[in-house]
Amino acid sequence: MQKRKYLIIGGDMRSVYLSELLKKEYHRVEMYGFEKKYPDMKNKNLSLMISDTNVIICGIPLESAGGLVNMPFSAEALPVNALIEMISGDVFFVAGKIEKDIREQLDGKGIAYFDLLDREEMAVLNAIPAAEGAVELIIKAIPATIHNSRILILGFGRIGKVLSKILHGFGAEVWIAARKYSDLSWIEVYGYKPVHIKDLESYATDMDVIVNTIPVRMLTADILNKIRPDCYLLDLASKPGGIDFTHAEKLGFKVDWALSLPGKVAPLTAAEIIKRTIDNVFQEGSFTK
Amino acid sequence: MQKRKYLIIGGDMRSVYLSELLKKEYHRVEMYGFEKKYPDMKNKNLSLMISDTNVIICGIPLESAGGLVNMPFSAEALPVNALIEMISGDVFFVAGKIEKDIREQLDGKGIAYFDLLDREEMAVLNAIPAAEGAVELIIKAIPATIHNSRILILGFGRIGKVLSKILHGFGAEVWIAARKYSDLSWIEVYGYKPVHIKDLESYATDMDVIVNTIPVRMLTADILNKIRPDCYLLDLASKPGGIDFTHAEKLGFKVDWALSLPGKVAPLTAAEIIKRTIDNVFQEGSFTK
Amino acid sequence: MQKRKYLIIGGDMRSVYLSELLKKEYHRVEMYGFEKKYPDMKNKNLSLMISDTNVIICGIPLESAGGLVNMPFSAEALPVNALIEMISGDVFFVAGKIEKDIREQLDGKGIAYFDLLDREEMAVLNAIPAAEGAVELIIKAIPATIHNSRILILGFGRIGKVLSKILHGFGAEVWIAARKYSDLSWIEVYGYKPVHIKDLESYATDMDVIVNTIPVRMLTADILNKIRPDCYLLDLASKPGGIDFTHAEKLGFKVDWALSLPGKVAPLTAAEIIKRTIDNVFQEGSFTK
Amino acid sequence: MQKRKYLIIGGDMRSVYLSELLKKEYHRVEMYGFEKKYPDMKNKNLSLMISDTNVIICGIPLESAGGLVNMPFSAEALPVNALIEMISGDVFFVAGKIEKDIREQLDGKGIAYFDLLDREEMAVLNAIPAAEGAVELIIKAIPATIHNSRILILGFGRIGKVLSKILHGFGAEVWIAARKYSDLSWIEVYGYKPVHIKDLESYATDMDVIVNTIPVRMLTADILNKIRPDCYLLDLASKPGGIDFTHAEKLGFKVDWALSLPGKVAPLTAAEIIKRTIDNVFQEGSFTK
């Protein structure tokens, strides 16, 4: 296998694990933006580092607030467009959630890049650590076992599919709300109980746990009013989330909104997934240029 | 619920079970084309029957050879277009695999119809009896247990998904060949072993069972030459099938090509699936007219 | 590993597969009592063969009717005690279901022996082919899929445990009748529905399939009278079986009594189990002498 | 159903949930020893309460240090033998881990009693919350997902059986070490990888997680020296535990010893299990007297 020179700029624990995985395959890896957490990793001159690299990997997401490169373990403030400015021709650029203006800047400079979040296989595999993180939260939150609990999952996308499989393995009674008849058929095939989303109101009332995965307001005040007060509510959907949190708290529900679970729950596995996705892209030769 | 007058014309055992399921819900059901197997069900005047019905249900597929209505349990020869000719305005027409010329004839007469095979939920649910039929064939064919056998499934469509789930439940070592990276990721999520289809040749050699579900020639003479001679080959794909049968038999493989399993293995369940699909269509109001 | 000289005398297809497995590990294997099915395997002089062997393996069971060695693939009639008479000192003797008088004869001659059916690990592993055979019978017998069927298993011994696990993997609704509270707890742990055996009468009435594994008359005429007539009855228990077959047939039930499934359904796996059991005994040094 | 007068004396959150479950069935329930956590529950005169009760339920275990009744939510110090002294003839006495001297005192006074920990069905069902608690600890401890991790469980008793089932449902590679060949067979039946305990040393080296369930020193300093340093060690065995903790910490292992998980992880479920066990005992009429 071809050895490459990688430069990892920012990101969270996933970046740290990723560097170790790459070194295990004898690639050269340099790090920038980790000096606050790892004082040994002093930041060297970034321009020089960039000039001697094949692949730059930034975090997921690429940007933090204010258009800065996402570097939670660093005290530096590096604007994303300043970073791109420093990159020239022959480098591959990898990051998650690359905004439109940055894509245009990359295109303009003829730099090959791809967005990790555009890759379906990455999204599928990331559903595993996300689902395991949800399981941890549920065990911690409820006074009963998952075994024999009635759990309703809203949505049968990636996380819905993986989470339902694991909860079924615990012996929970798994209900899943979806809209399409073909999804409802799959739900039945897998041995879960299907609920048409239009009947959500009547089925939600008597659950031990409800997990939302749809980024649309599903549990409105109206529906929350009818739910058993000891039901645990867990939202895994990205903004704006699917629960009326203000109303849920007013009613006294135990409620959590858990975002970015893969990096928090299983950074090593999340790093492996990133590495494999990058490998696939190299193998396919499917960098956008 | 609204009571309807159903007329079932032809089809196999699924039609017989379907009539019983409809009667249990107090619909009126009449039958045409079953007199050879059920001498009690004498065929009455078809035109009269049609003139006093709301829904006509034919078999899957609608046609047998020569453009005749598929009526395996009848001695009559009724051309499909002659049947359509008899139908007038207010009747709903249901069948499987309605050919283009017949659709045009139905459209021309303004008759509301739908094709069962166009419904995704029906295809999904039918994967269950098909997979169970495949399991029966595998148990019968191999001298070992499914437990601990190495089984390679070609394709991760509906039948591939359901069959792999069941075989995994037996404790088999399940390998699945697919092409898309996202499918390979799902295969891993479910705990099976993924094989990229381009590597089929090297992985196929040492299996106890290979089940094909892709209607494309997958197991060519070249690949068959390399497969262990005691491997059982089962093809579930529709025509032209995925195995070079002539070559496989020349090499002495035990090989089966199993088509239309749902109606043969579990006609009652297959009839329930048809009934539910029809119910869904009525509920959606999604008849083509 | 030490190479041995094996002599296989009689038995069914398991014996044939066993000889191949032993040869794969470079043991010498000779066969006696297969000439009717395999004309190439002519029977040589038995005394001479015995005088040059380390281990003699007979069938399961050792005896067929009339005290003869169980040799279904042979035309010879060899009394078991005549066989034992020919054996002397240094040979290990292995068979299934060795009767008390034969054990005494072996003890008297100081021959080391063990009974395969006394080994718990063999009984456990044999439950797998037995359960798979039961699955094949169920798929064949019922007009519905196992998925979503209601299946009641009587007894939570070895076969009950393995069969329930597989049927659960199909997505059946699995009910299990047992007597001990600790068994009922385990049934619940595994996600099946527990029935106390004293309530059998009320739970048996509305099942799609009932599988008996207890060698005691469970389904009496009284209970059969209350069972839904389209319920499939399958008895896996050894004599006297657990179903009143005469009454069941009078009532028109579809009913099967399946014995000795492992050797019929999966002779290769059954032979592997025998081989591993013999290996364990040699490793333990636990031959009775 | 017969209504009873229950008196719950001490115990943890399980006692609190148990009181609610009993009230739901319209029994009268009084509480003693909860005033520190629930100031509303003032302790009344204990003798008077005892004189008007049918069933007394103490905690699991009955005693805390110094021979006192286990009452973590109370400031009172009540010796167990003083409590027994107050009880007279017609009361049923229930608790967990009743020591020999107390049993003799109960026998002497002719009081009917039983020890919850003597009931097999209670031990079986308690394995579920214990296993779920272990899962929570594992997810929290390791940087990878349980999916695809290699996990070795020492022991195939109750907790070993339930935990392996759940971890298998996550898609882990589950290895189990046991001593009996029949257990090793069951391990294989369920699709896990069997390890004979005598080979522990060679298999333990390359695991992501090792969970011990055997109350015997299994992971000695010698074995720990050979284990991969990033392996997470979790001990679920009661005293003296199965890991050389001092040595494990010296080597820098992440290691936990988790006891009494059911009451901590799922007190509601644990209370339901206690209630059902008491119901079973009443139904059987199996109080010791």
Distance between the termini of chain A: 23 Å
Biggest sheet details of chain A: 6 strands, parallel
Radius of gyration of chain A: 22 Å
CATH architecture of the largest domain in chain A: 3-Layer(aba) Sandwich
| Total number of beta strands of chain A | 13
* Quaternary: homotetramer
Describe this structure in words.
The structure is a homotetramer of 289-residue chains. With 289 residues, the first copy, chain A, is an alpha/beta fold. The first copy, chain A, contains twelve helices and 13 strands. Chain A has helices at 13-24, 46-51, 80-86, 100-109, 120-141, 158-170, 181-189, 200-203, 221-224, 245-250, 261-265, 267-284; strands spanning 5-9, 28-32, 55-58, 63-64, 68-69, 92-95, 112-115, 150-154, 173-178, 193-196, 209-212, 232-235, 255-257. In chain A, the strands form three sheets. A six-stranded parallel β-sheet of chain A has the order 10-9-8-11-12-13. In chain A, strand 9, helix 7 (181-189) and strand 10 (193-196) form a beta-alpha-beta unit. In chain A, helix 1 crosses helix 12 (267-284) and helix 5 (120-141) runs antiparallel to helix 12. Chain A is elongated and about 60 Å long. The mean pLDDT of chain A is 94.
